Amino acid sequence: VALILFALVFQIVLLPLGIKQQKNMIKQASIRPLEMAIRKKYAGRNDQVTMRKMQNELLELQQKNGFSPMAGCLPMLVQMIIIFPLYWIVIRPLQYCGGLTYSTCYRLAQIFGLEFSTKGQPVSTSFQVDLATKLSQDGWRETILNSGNLLDSDGTNVLEAVENMMARFGGD
Fold it and tell me: How far is CA 76 from its chain centroid?
């Protein structure tokens, strides 16, 4: 539900940019025949002076009709700036929302006997689901406490890190 609501809000916020992009595409379609006529006029001539004349005529045509080739890229760029970080947050919630480091996840995998990706690779989604399942069961604190070594390779106390994550997500 939260993702659907976020998607709706995201689309509503970006609606003005989308409308601007659509208007720009309509302008481009309307001047396309004129652009093709200019290109046809200079077809077959590849010298620098002729190419410069053609580019100047095309630029003049675009300015006269209020068309900007870059106006179509801006909405996509804004969307990408939002979508890429959002993608990583959605597929790696333990790291980005929960604050668990890679080494803490590795230590938790050892404690709970979970399969874990090798060093240098991101924490897999399947591991996160398995860990969430283990942490939703009774007795997870005792399992961590009984593991012996509560520190991960970075020196972070694993139990404290998990409790902090649980507090961020609203408790058990």
Answer: 12
**Per-position DSSP letters for 70-86, written without gaps between them:** GGGHHHHHHHHHHHHHH
Q: Are 62 and 68 in contact (CB under 8 A)?
A: yes
Q: Residue 144 corresponds to which tokens in the numbers above?
A: 């961590």
| Closest listed residue to residue 139, CA positions, set 106, 165, 172 | 172
Alpha helices in 92-157, H assignment, sequence order? 93-96, 102-112, 125-136, 140-145
DSSP-based three-state secondary structure for 151: strand
Which region, left, alpha or beta, applies to residue 129 given φ > 0 means left and ψ of -120 to 50 means alpha? alpha
Categorise residue 18: left if φ over 0, alpha if ψ from -120 to 50, beta otherwise.
Answer: alpha
- Give the other-Cβ count within 10 Å of 100's Cβ: 26
Evaluate if pTM is beyond 0.70: no
Q: Which amino acid is at 136?
A: S
pLDDT tens digits, 113-167 = 888 876 666 677 788 888 888 888 888 888 888 888 788 877 888 888 888 888 8
From 128, 90, 136, 94, select the one nearest 109 (Cα to Cα): 128
Taking a C-beta distance cutoff of 8 angstroms, is the pair 42, 99 a contact? no
DSSP code of residue 69: G
> What residues contact 151, with CB distance under 8 A and at least 6 apart?
107, 157, 158
